[in-house]
Amino acid sequence: MEDFAHGTHSVSPTPRAVLVERDHRIKELINVARTKGFDELAHPFLLLMLLATFTRNEIF
Question: So what's the pLDDT on residue 1?
Fold first, then answer.
């Protein structure tokens, strides 16, 4: 039951398979970034972009 007016809406947990798949995709993208010549300073930015990309679909 969702009751947004009273802040009691429930959020279903993300299935483990979805989390495992997301982690796998993130690791693949990091490996591609490393082989393409991204330096160490680019990694935090890349991780933030990946996090924003993969969590956006779960938030909205």
Answer: 45
Is the four-CA dihedral 35, 36, 37, 39 of positive or negative sign? negative
Cα–Cα dist 45/31, whole Å: 15
Q: Which residues contact 29 (CB under 8 A, 6 or more apart)?
A: 46, 50
> Which amino acid does the sequence have at 31?
N
Cα–Cα nearest to 19, from 57, 45, 48, 49: 57
Q: Is the pTM of this model over 0.70?
A: no
Three-state secondary-structure class, residue 24: helix
Q: Which helix (H) or strand (E) holds 39?
A: none
pLDDT digits (tens, 9 = 90+) for 14-56: 788 888 888 888 788 777 777 776 655 566 777 777 777 766 6
